[in-house]
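@channel anyone free to eyeball this complex?
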Amino acid sequence: MILLSNIEKVYRTSSIQTLALRNVNLAVAKGEFLSIMGPSGCGKSTLLNIMGLLDAPSGGTIKLDGQTVSNLPDQKLAKIRNEKLGFIFQSYHLITDLNVIDNVELPLIYRNVSASERKKRAMEALEKVGLSARTKHYPNQLSGGQRQRVAIARAIVGRPEVILADEPTGNLDSVMGDEVMNILLQLNQQDGTTIVMVTHDEAQALRTQRLLRFFDGQPVNTESYATQLS
Amino acid sequence: MLTQLFKIMWRRKGSNFLLLTEIFFSFLVLFATGTLITEGLINYFSPQGFDHTDVYDVRINRQGEGNPESFPKMQQIDQVLKGFPEISNYSFTDVNTPFSFNIMDGSIGTEEQQVRSYNYRVEPAYLETLDLEMAEGSWFQKGDVRIPKPVVINEHLRDKLFPGESALGKRIKSDGGTEYQVTGVVKHFRQDGNLTAPESSYFVMYNDKDTADIAGNILLEIKAGAHPAWQQNLIDQLQEIGGSWSIDLVPLTEARASKAKIKVIPAIALAVVCGFLIFNVALGLFGVLYYNINKRYSEIGIRRALGATATAVRRQMLGEVLVMATLGVSLGVLLALQFPLLGVMNVETYIYLIANAAALLLIYLLVALCAWFPSKQAAQIEPAIALHYD
Ligand SMILES: Nc1ncnc2c1ncn2[C@@H]1O[C@H](COP(=O)(O)OP(=O)(O)OP(=O)(O)O)[C@@H](O)[C@H]1O
Ligand SMILES: [Mg+2]
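replying in thread with the prediction:
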């Protein structure tokens, strides 16, 4: 599904140069739930951003579904992000001036879906995350767990094949975290969505199929588990 | 997409209000300065109603000499001018010659309406000397002693006194009580030509038999290509007749130049102020827009992550700003429309309309320019980087 070959990422600021990723090779299979762990600053977010075409690598190639996407023009990249990928971030990244349903509709807006169809699909996505009663609320009127569920609804509304989640439970207490984790597992197992998740929570990582340990810009080993819905 | 755009703008009414106010005041500044500039330009490029090339102004100061002594001298001068080969036309006039610093004004009009108006006492040959253009009727003839006295008015005065109709044969009365009958209407005429706005004027005839009625100036039209020696020659001859009089010969082109200098200085000052204001408006708009767009990097990052192209983001930013501009400008236009209704600046309505259109165009141009750069910059940044702003 996702194939990274020899990926490098160098951040250059005026004074220092940071090598955030060094020669990363990684394959994510279709329908897989992969988690990534590692110390702070080791390059996990950078890796996820590059997989999600939110940032360009300094070297190497990315293949999605067999198509090389590392050098595509912005228009094509935007289309792939819109249709194939869904994002979930630690700090939710909802648009504060739009209410829940408008936030969830966003990916469909860039896809020319009619307003009534958008509404219908957004409602379905919100039902899946158990938030259909709060569609007119604004993000600042919701709890952290609710915000993250809105973000998940937004990530799945366009029915992407891949969801990239960067510490989706990082800002949540363990109960809320488990709730979000359950939704992700369900998406993976029932809808066959491929998920790559960065986490600091060992227990959550253990519930995914495969754990990749990352250190200093490189994977150091990977472990496989049997996934389970609790 | 559009409804979402409006929802967001409504939620951000706080910061958008600042932008709206900035655009509103910018529009008013541009409108007011635009009105002044448009008026000046229109005056400058509209016909002045006379041709002053090769026309000279003989300025006579009789140094307090009484009329009975001066009258025969003026008649002698008349004879000299008649026989002077370089002069093609000449007319005795009052001191308010074109571009001079003397004016004569008073009220004239019908029983119903009096109009403040400049007046000129001239001889029939004034018509040819300055090449005035008739709009209707005819100029007065030498020896015309009709009662009421003939008067020629300009179009501006006619349009005030007799809007939409012919002025010929109409009787009007000056505030001095003299009654006149209109024999003709001249086009465009105003004393300072294209240096000034249209103004009401009328012309009456000198009575050259009247010892009490002595001209102060003489306008001469000189044949093209005359040898310059005529000037000294003429002054010498006139001086000999005048004796103690002081006599100056001033080309109208020169008179116009000194008048222009006086009008140009405030115009330049105004232009500098306008330029400064427009610069400030641009700077202010740029600041507000730059700030507004920079605050939204995180939103831009989110939209890009969800599938917006850089172009779509840029369009959205520009679109929002143009909507704000339209709102601000609409308020401005609403206020600007009060200007002609209340007569705030004393210019013709069509000048307001031109200034209005120019200000509109300039605002949209400025807003588009000032929004374009930050929008482009915001759209180009990698989504991952944009997401880091919060
Ligand atoms: N925009 C940037 N400019 C410069 N350096 C950056 C930038 N983004 C990340 N880095 C650097 O790249 C390295 C990897 O950062 P990254 O955010 O991927 O770490 P991480 O593994 O996600 O850490 P955490 O667990 O704290 O989120 C860090 O050393 C960081 O300082
Ligand atoms: Mg991170």
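from a first look: Chain A is about 35% helix and 30% strand.
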